[in-house]
């Protein structure tokens, strides 16, 4: 027998809520479905930053401020659905950083992890935790949490890279600390290339046992990555939903390269199109080589080199390769996996 609500029941409830409100209390039942939804509600919108459109602004920034004065001369890529937040997704940040010859972006450290994916130029370096690495287009470089880092440029011409940071994720926990180094450049303690030789060559120092949240390899050079992807194409067809998709690995434990940001790179052979796929992590894509299209909902984003596209979590998307297409991507998938939150769905 179901109780028939009395006509004044709603008014009595509202009065109760109002009295409870004075005690900083609120009923769950009016909010339960939105607090605990059936599936993720996309945060922000899918969007593409065509590099041809973004580049002039990035280059112009050098006319307005030096890397030294700016500390980091970056144009933030802000999700059009999240303006004012400095976010490209619900949990992550993206920006295009510019360094000009002779400049130094001074040493600092912070709790936020950073990744760099090199877009154009040559001769610039980043120094992380006492080792310098000269960056080339397509290189993937990590700056682990709380490691001293500065950037410099000993070559010619502008150098641009995509910065990915877990700024919103760290802000959520409010566990944010930062420090400026007393010197413009933090001291170097190892020769260039040391980490890659020691940990990133299919070798490890004998007796080395020091599992770490971050990969000890901090530059994954593009030529090696590109060659691996190319070799994969000879072995068989790409995955129907993902293409030839590989993740950047921590060689010490086989895990992801960083604890908060999952990083991957894929090759789609010319003419190949993926079937629809979605996952609970919002992802940022940057085109490395080739051309094609990313389709999400009603949006069809053309893909040309260096274009950046964001796809909010749980929105299904497909990738289409017009020419052999290489795409780097990052997301918070690794954090979600560790917390038991990650889900994916292969549609067709
Ligand atoms: O290079 O250290 O895009 O601290 C934002 C914050 C880059 C960096 C960003 C940063 C950096």
Question: What would you say this structure looks like, in words?
Answer:
The chain is an alpha+beta fold. It contains 8 helices and 22 strands. The protein has a 6-stranded antiparallel sheet with strand order 1-19-16-21-14-13. 2,5-dihydroxybenzoic acid binds at residues 72, 74, 95, 97, 110, 114, 149, 163, 165. 2,5-dihydroxybenzoic acid (GTQ) binds next to strand 3 and strand 10.
Rg calculated over all Cα atoms = 23 Å
Strand content: 25-35%
CATH superfamily: Jelly Rolls
Instruction: Detail the poorly predicted runs.
Output: none
What structural class should be given to the helix and strand makeup?
alpha+beta
How would you describe the shape?
Answer: globular
Major sheet details: 6 strands, antiparallel
Q: What is the number of domains?
A: 1
Mean pLDDT: 97
Summarize the helix and strand pattern as letters: HHEHHEEEEEEEEEHEHEHEEEEEEEEEHE
* Cofactors and ligands: 2,5-dihydroxybenzoic acid
Features:
globular; Jelly Rolls; alpha+beta; 348 residues; binds 2,5-dihydroxybenzoic acid; single chain
Please outline what is shown here.
The chain is an alpha+beta fold.
Question: What's the helix and strand layout?
Answer:
Layout: H1 9-21, H2 32-35, E1 47-49, H3 51-64, H4 67-70, E2 74-76, E3 93-99, E4 104-110, E5 114-120, E6 124-128, E7 131-134, E8 140-143, E9 149-153, E10 159-165, H5 167-173, E11 178-180, H6 194-199, E12 219-220, H7 222-235, E13 244-247, E14 262-268, E15 277-279, E16 283-289, E17 292-296, E18 299-303, E19 308-311, E20 317-321, E21 325-331, H8 333-338, E22 344-346
Antiparallel strand pairs: 1-19, 2-3, 3-10, 4-9, 4-11, 5-8, 5-10, 6-7, 6-9, 8-12, 13-14, 14-21, 15-22, 16-19, 16-21, 17-18, 17-20
2,5-dihydroxybenzoic acid binds near residues 72, 110 and 114.
